[in-house]
Amino acid sequence: MAGHLGIMGYSVNLFNRTDENLAGVRWHGGIKVDGQVQGFGPVRKATSDIAEAISDVDLIMVVTPSTAHRTLAASMGPYLRDGQIIILNPGRTGGGLEFRKTLNDAKVTARVLLAETQTFIYASRALSRYEGYIYRIKNSVPLATLPAYWIPDVLSIINMAFPQFTAGNNVLSTSLENIGAVFHPALTILNAGWIEETHGNFDYYLQGITPSIAELLERIDKERIAVATALGIHSVSAREWLYLSYDSPGRNLYEAIHNTDSYRGIKAPQNIFHRYIFEDVPMSLVPLASIGAMLGVPTPMIEIIIRLGSIMHNKDYWNEGRTVDKLGLAGLSVKQIRQLVVGIE
Q: What is the pLDDT of residue 262?
């Protein structure tokens, strides 16, 4: 994203908490991008100092695993100023809610505009510390703000660079259409043997998703949609999402996946200690199951994947994850939750 923005002519600062990860960008003066976007994007400043990174910018694009959102909110809070826009790319499930609660708990007074996207705008992979490959830019990616009445203001600015961002209804909608929750954890866990044997040397989606695995993913998807419905949110299925994002037709999820040319060549993780589990289980599946439990919506398949991921990583992902308490939703009625996200006190 930093490279693409640089290619488009925007002034870009790049932050990474580990300074040595920025050495390649500093040496080359920017980022080489290949694939659907090609060119060299200059980076004005590459720094591990969060205050230096955000002090003079209007728009802050948070492009990290969602496990970093809480830490980033706490670290950038003292340096934020009125009018800055923060966009979580993506929020996963509940990112905007967790980020806002972290700022509120730290008593940050800066009036910032906070947004999250439904998914990452690119199908992409890093090739090195200063090179990226973009397989595809998605057709459209919903974006929502917290509260929702800021959506037109944020879109009017971000659409100058990324016209693919469209108006989501609210952060419940963008969070609950987190298709990564459906694809990533279960697919990685169910392919663990093949991943460990080949070190990920197979097409993650096109070879990893067999008809039987696709059936299990559709069961997880139905539970996700049931939680969304309980909150009064209409959410598209994973199969419909593939068509909207990649023009991929299919009578079922298996067919739609195998008709997604943009997934061709995307390899599986090299091992199971990957963000598809350590991020997507606590930050995508746990909030779905936690909200479901609060609203009386059964999520047995989701809970199985949470338990399996916890066992495989020797972690308590339920305890580490985004529960309703950490999202600031515990004890709220559906009406109160919906009022919260649209901005009604």
A: 85
Three-class SS state of 177: coil
> pLDDT digit string (tens) for 58-97?
999 999 999 999 999 999 999 999 999 999 999 999 999 9
Count of the separate structural domains present in the chain? 2
Residue 77 structure tokens: 């809070």
**Which domain-ending residue is among 176, 198, 233?**
176
Q: Check if 153 is active-site.
A: no
**Where do runs of H (alpha helix) occur along the chain?**
2-7, 23-28, 50-54, 69-76, 95-105, 151-158, 171-176, 180-190, 192-198, 211-230, 238-246, 253-258, 275-278, 280, 286-295, 300-313, 317-320, 324-327, 334-342
Residue 133: inside a domain: yes
Q: With respect to residue 303, please indicate whether it lies within any of the assigned structural domains.
A: yes
How is residue 271 written in tokens?
Answer: 């091992």
Q: Are residues 77 and 196 in the same domain?
A: no
End-to-end Cα spacing for the chain: 35
Report yes or no: 321 and 308 within 8 Å, Cβ to Cβ: no
Catalytic site residue from 221, 258, 274, 280: 280
pTM: 0.90
pLDDT above 90 for 246: no
Catalytic residue (one of 4, 69, 184, 258) = 184
Question: Where in the sequence is the domain holding 253, given as residue range(s)?
Answer: 180-331
| CATH code, domain with 263 | 1.10.1040.10
Average pLDDT score over residue span 7-13: 98
Query: Is 339 within a domain?
Result: no
Are residues 95 and 116 in contact, defined by beta-carbon separation less than 8 angstroms?
A: yes
Q: Give catalytic status of residue 203 as yes or no.
A: no
